[in-house]
Amino acid sequence: MFQRLREDIACILERDPAARTGWEVLTCYPGLHALLLHRRAHWCWQHQLKWLGRFISHLSRWLTGIEIHPGATISRRVFIDHGMGIVIGEMAEIGEGCTIYQGVTLGGTALVKGAKRHPTLEAGVIVGANACVLGGFTVGAGARIGSGAVVTRPVPAGATAVGNPARIIEAKVEAQRELIAAQLGFSAYGVTQGDDPVAQAMRGLIDNAAGHEHQIALLWQAVSKLSIASTATLQDCVPQDAQQAEIFDAASLSRLVK
């Protein structure tokens, strides 16, 4: 029991830069208290002491502001940061090393008793503040759920889900991102720069339009050179309102969607 407690404290000290000492974590972190009480409630639930398990869960909710059903399965080294307003359903499964921020709901969309109604988070998942993961599907290992996202379908391993309804961004192999991830250990609140797929799409369209503008400018230059060698001048062939210079400002438009 004490080994598990030391592991929990070390986990928080590792992931929360605001944590200063083990004593501070032990006495002042409601996420740790909620997990300690949940283990007692879960033991009671598994040993058919259903009412006692629910009562311990109810006390934990009253003391910490975190509601965890005693039937939920939570692995080792799970970090609940801040924690206020978190709701974790009966059939939820949380894998090793997950991080969950305040206001998160791991809930269900079905009312059928006995069915798998709540999500499964595999190892290393990060769920950002106020996100909702609703349904009996799996969020793959290392995935990130952005703050405020509403996820109602499976998330592949390593992917990121952002928005309402959540849009899935597949994992990318980028040396710089891997280096930062290795240094930080995890992404706070489940978001990093460039995670918004709408902004990514807009930037792609802007870059594409800028490329077209550049190509058109090059074509005009070629036409100008050809017209010098011909009897007709460029002004004779080109309408008065034709754009002959590159004026598309991609940089200013890109800043609007960053």
Descriptive notes:
The chain is an alpha/beta fold. It has 2 domains: 2-195, 3 Solenoid (UDP N-Acetylglucosamine Acyltransferase, domain 1); 198-256. The protein is built from 8 helices and 15 strands. It has a 6-stranded mixed β-sheet with strand order 3-6-9-12-14-15. The protein has a 5-stranded parallel β-sheet with strand order 1-4-7-10-13. α3 runs antiparallel to α4. The longest helix has 33 residues, at 197-229.
Per-chain topology:
Layout: H1 2-15, H2 22-28, H3 30-46, H4 50-64, E1 67-68, E2 73-74, E3 79-80, E4 87-88, E5 93-94, E6 99-100, E7 105-107, E8 120-121, E9 126-127, E10 132-134, E11 138-139, E12 144-145, E13 150-151, E14 160-162, E15 167-169, H5 175-184, H6 197-229, H7 234-237, H8 250-256
Parallel strand pairs: 1-4, 2-5, 3-6, 4-7, 5-8, 6-9, 7-10, 8-11, 9-12, 10-13, 12-14
Antiparallel strand pairs: 14-15
Helix pairs in contact: 3-4
* CATH fourth-tier homologous superfamily of the largest domain: Hexapeptide repeat proteins
Shape call: elongated
CATH architecture of the largest domain: 3 Solenoid
Topology pattern, helix = H, strand = E: HHHHEEEEEEEEEEEEEEEHHHH
Compute the average pLDDT: 82
Strand order of the largest sheet: 3-6-9-12-14-15
- Fraction of helical residues: 40-55%
Compute the number of helices: 8
Let me know the largest β-sheet: 6 strands, mixed
Count of folded domains? 2
Give the termini distance in whole angstroms.
47 Å
Task: Pick out the low-confidence regions.
Answer: 173-178
